[in-house]
Design a protein that fits this description.
Largest sheet: 11 strands, mixed
Radius of gyration: 20 Å
Shape: globular
Number of strands: 16
Strand content: 15-25%
Structural class: alpha/beta
Strand order of the largest sheet: 1-8-2-3-7-4-6-5-9-10-11
Helix content: 25-40%
Number of helices: 11
Amino acid sequence: MDTMETKLLPASPQAIEEAAKLLRAGETVGIPTETVYGLAADATNSEAVTKIFEAKGRPQDNPLIVHISRMEELDRVVREIPQAALRLAEAFWPGPLTIIMKKSDAIPNTTSAGLDTVAVRMPSHPVAREIIRASGLPLAAPSANLSGLPSPTTAQHTFRDLNGRVPLIIDGGACAVGVESTVITVAGEKPTLLRPGYITKEQLEGALGCEVALSSAILNKLADGEVAASPGMKYKHYSPKADVIILKGSFDQYRAYLETHGGEGVFAMCYEGEEKKLPVPCIPCGRADDPASQAHALFSALREADDRNAKVVYAHCPAQNGLSMAVYNRLIRAAAFQVVEL
């Protein structure tokens, strides 16, 4: 694609107005959210949305999340608002939750990847909401990275990936959450969690007062020919250039494995404080007893692996419940499902 000059501007009223002007003109803009940085375009404009895919190098069979700033904007993008969606919105919006509903005619197939549903969320990041409000548009915004790479959690990550590919990136600081939003569909018979995130399955069930089903694609590969109903369900995703391998077992087993598998370019992804106990160079990723800190640090840690020219990164397998499920879900895709049982 043709390169262009990419401006990186700190968030200010002037920068937000410039972003809104570009979005209204059918351009793309990198924006901060509380989860990860997003690459935004007018969700109702098929040509604008195509520019997102081109900038990211992303296949168009992956649906995009549409971002709104107020509940009043929801009617424009969905055909109907189920009672379950209202309950979830009341409990978790604005915030890191995406709800899938039947789409309105305003949403083109380019945005929904040909599905009759649309994924919608209301971010809590004040800059994201100001940009949506100023543009007067619902904004499609997947993560603002080159397709397949770890998602960006700073404006600098975004600039590194998309410099020359987008006209503007707004710097709103480091993302508070660090992994993409939880995705739940209420468009079928039963509410189903499609992608785990900061809002956990247990919290969703508490708000809905009923059981939430778990998509098998959260912890496993999509079956051959299975359509991705949500972003982040693809086979390999969020991955550095290094080969990521998950080691499943106790810390002692993890350390023993590393003692026999070290070498040039081999790194361990570990928790803070474990670096001195391991026999290979380490990339810390949050605290062992704090899944929120692991989520916050994960994508930065994966990017650090590339910065340090890692060839292989061995990651100690996180838990698979609560918020840890979100960390595991991203990590297993970064590893292309390579898991060694110790």
